[in-house]
Write a structure and sequence with these properties.
It is built from three helices and five strands; from the N terminus they run βββββααα. By secondary structure, it is of the alpha+beta class. The longest helix is centred in the C-terminal third of the chain and has 10 residues.
């Protein structure tokens, strides 16, 4: 491929092991932007009431049974209100607090602030669920 085919703003992809192109430039440092999860909460919102499936690693977690949706052998955290049932929202203070933080599911533990998935959640749901859809459309 000719060098002019690449944007001057980003270096061209480099070949990794086996001569394949790498999707990620590992020489580029991660962003040093600090993320305040309590002021965001985007990852805790979804219009899918069964958005968060519990994994086998979650069996020993002390989650309130009434906060779960059970479908056969699968268990989900209830998102039927548009966000995680464990999310305590204070829109005046601009805070989203996880009420089961110490016992939060494995998927929540694995989620990393500033990750690709974090950016996707922010784009899809907005900060504090775009103020909970502008207070449920006033």
């Amino acid at each position: 491929m000719h060098a002019a085919a690449f944007s001057t703003k980003a270096p061209p992809p480099r070949a990794g092991a086996g001569g394949r192109l790498r999707a990620v430039d590992f020489d580029t440092p991660m962003s040093d932007t600090a993320f305040d999860c309590v002021a965001c909460g985007a990852c805790c919102f979804s219009r899918n009431p069964r958005y968060l499936v519990l994994l086998p690693e979650d069996r020993g977690r002390d989650l309130p049974r009434d906060s779960l949706v059970i479908d056969g052998e699968r268990r989900f955290v209830d998102f039927s209100c548009g966000h995680c049932v464990h999310l305590q929202l204070d829109l005046t203070a601009g805070q989203a607090i996880c009420t089961v933080y110490d016992n939060r599911p494995e998927a929540c533990r694995a989620f990393r602030a500033g990750s690709f998935e974090c950016g996707k959640a922010i784009r899809a749901n907005g900060i504090l669920g775009e103020k909970v859809r502008e207070v449920r459309v006033a």
